[in-house]
Amino acid sequence: MTEKLYYEDGYLKSVEAEVIGVKKNGIILDKTIFYPEGGGQPGDTGYFGTYEIIDTIKDDDGTPLHIIKGALPSIGDKAVLTLSWNHRYQYMTEHSAQHLVSALLHSIYDIGTVAVHQGDGFFTIETDASSIDKEKLLDIEDKANEAIREGHRIEQKSLSREEALNLHMRRTIKVDDDTVLVVFIEGLDAVACGGVHLRNTSEIKEIVYIGCEIIRGHVRTIWRAGDVAVSYRRMNDDIVSSLSVLLSSERENIVANAEALSQEKAELAHSVKVLSEKIAELEYKMEGNRKDVITINSSVPVSSFESVIPESDKRLIIVVDSSSRFLFHGDKEKFETLRSSIPSIKGGGRGNMYRGSVGMDGETFLREAERVLINDR
């Protein structure tokens, strides 16, 4: 039986332990400070002496199994178990922040939590709501940061099942055990949870709402917490500062100026498209006297020729541009002949229009194409 020290003190960073079991890819210890993956929280990482622990999971009976990279120690081996503290502390922060946000969603807007996940630098809360106004989520962000500044105590207690049920918690108890671990945020929340948490909301530092998405018909909200949230805010501030310089704009005018530039870009792109099609039309007409095969090494994208070449033109027309993109107008059988003769052709189409790329320069491709098609006639 493994003694789970992370429930006694989630802030322990190291302890001496002994191997009492060896599995195919991991070890079981007589005691551990490593939390196994569960409840949306990833497993801990670190070292057992010189052995690297890359993950901690629950064995079939729920015992923490420490996954080792490479060779395994033997039963009876003793060493210092050292936690990757920054990794653990960030997830403790996210877990505590998730409890706080879920509690506020429930108490203020009667929005329940269906599922949670802690990722690399963010956490998500899948709610039972099909839609949530952004203003409500920003209000939750404000209330969460207010609770952080107030410094509410966070503690975990082992209660009898009857005691836990009498708390009428916002979420049903998911375990069938006679005793239940309940996490309390002083004055704000009580919920059954077997994870590891901070001691006080003040340690969370900051919570930032960053967006949401729809999953299984529910709104899944996305958040950052702790040092990651601080870094995210500072990064966004740096981005705004840089854009302000690039656009020679005051911060409050950045969006309007960016929209104006986007509109200008769209208008220029349209003008370029119109001019490219006119050039394509001129290049097509310049080759108009050729009767059988027309090849054009164009100065504009081959897409410009799609509206220029009439479907009624029965000649074989091959266009290639400076990006080694091609357009083939003609019989499908001729295109297949060309593609089988020049393996570097990638692409396809239907009817009498085929598009793609060639793995060679335009002049070389057109010479090869003319050779193949002339020999094929």
Helix-strand blueprint:
Elements: E1 3-4, H1 5-8, E2 14-22, E3 26-29, E4 31-32, E5 46-48, E6 51-58, E7 64-68, E8 78-83, H2 85-109, E9 113-118, E10 123-127, H3 134-150, E11 154-160, H4 161-165, E12 179-185, E13 189-192, E14 207-215, E15 218-225, H5 227-246, H6 254-286, E16 293-297, E17 316-320, E18 325-329, H7 332-341, E19 346-350, E20 353-357, H8 362-376
Parallel strand pairs: 1-4, 16-17
Antiparallel strand pairs: 2-3, 2-8, 3-7, 5-6, 5-8, 6-7, 9-10, 10-15, 11-12, 12-13, 14-15, 17-18, 18-20, 19-20
Helix pairs in contact: 2-3, 7-8
Please give a structural write-up.
With 377 residues, this protein is of the alpha+beta class. The chain is built from 8 helices and 20 strands. The strands form 5 sheets. It has a 6-stranded antiparallel beta barrel with strand order 2-3-7-6-5-8. Helix 2 (85-109) packs across helix 3 and helix 7 crosses helix 8 (362-376). The longest helix has 33 residues, at 254-286. It starts with a strand and ends with a helix.
